[in-house]
Design a protein that fits this description.
By secondary structure, this protein is of the alpha+beta class. The protein has two domains: 96 residues, 2-Layer Sandwich (Beta-Lactamase), CATH 3.30.450; 104 residues, OB fold (Dihydrolipoamide Acetyltransferase, E2P) (Beta Barrel). Helices cover 17% and strands 40% of the residues. The strands form four sheets. The chain has a five-stranded antiparallel beta sheet with strand order 2-1-5-4-3, with helices on both faces. A five-stranded antiparallel beta sheet has the order 10-9-8-12-11. It has a three-stranded antiparallel beta sheet with strand order 13-14-15. A hairpin with a 2-residue loop joins strand 11 and strand 12. The chain is elongated, with a radius of gyration of 20 Å. The two termini are 36 Å apart.
Length: 214
């Protein structure tokens, strides 16, 4: 253990939970380590001050473990997490945080803008969501509409047992996948039930395979 630096140990811990959980470490005033996961990235940078209302700030202020939901006002995305203070020479020195994505907020439809107005779409009918030319498109077998959310925001409101991020530009409904093929340009190619072909990129392939069990 003497040959293992704190940073190396944190990197190893982060790798264990890299798909789901982001890890951060603070002193009493600022962040001194941050490793994002594939599911959530709060865009924290080393040296960022602790914001009032965040888990880290609460854990330091109360000098005790804090576990709760934090809304999107803090970092632009909602998240759940746990922060545990640590001591050095008997004095409060900072805290360690585990940050994981918020789950669906109970809604069962996504309402999109179409040429005729707005259309509520049940989650089960969504085939895929795509970002293209700085707009977010929600597609069903019958229509395509525009939504104000980013893909990252959709990751936090869509049911995790149905929707998977497979590419920087796509989220797919796993119940709408017809076939999966190997692909030379991305790890896999998905053929959706509406006939659309969607790539699974290298950065998401491991997580995608784990969730679908192949």
């Amino acid at each position: 253990m003497n040959d293992l630096s704190v940073g190396s140990l944190l990197d190893v811990m982060g790798e264990l939970f890299s798909d789901e959980i982001s890890i951060a470490v603070t002193n009493t005033k600022e962040y001194i380590y941050y490793r994002p996961s594939k599911r959530i990235d709060l865009k924290i940078k080393t040296g960022d001050s602790l914001k009032e209302g965040t888990l880290a700030h609460k854990a330091i202020a109360q000098n005790q473990k804090v576990s709760e939901f934090i809304n999107r006002n803090m970092f632009g995305v909602p998240y759940h997490g746990m922060a545990v203070p640590y001591q050095r020479d008997g004095q409060l020195a900072g805290c360690v945080l585990a940050i994981y994505p918020a789950y669906t907020d109970g809604k069962s439809v996504v309402t999109v803008k179409t040429s005729d107005g707005w259309t509520p779409i049940p989650f089960k009918d969504v085939v895929y969501i795509e970002v293209k030319a700085r707009k977010t498109y929600v597609a069903t077998e019958d229509l395509v509409g525009v939504h104000k959310n980013t893909l990252q925001e959709f990751e936090f409101i869509l049911p995790r047992d149905s929707f998977v991020r497979c590419h920087r530009s796509f989220i797919v409904n796993v119940h709408q996948i017809k076939e999966i093929f190997p692909d030379t340009h991305s790890t896999f190619l998905l053929v959706m039930r509406d006939g659309t072909k969607i790539p699974v990129s290298q950065s998401y392939s491991s997580y995608f395979r784990k969730l679908l069990g192949f």
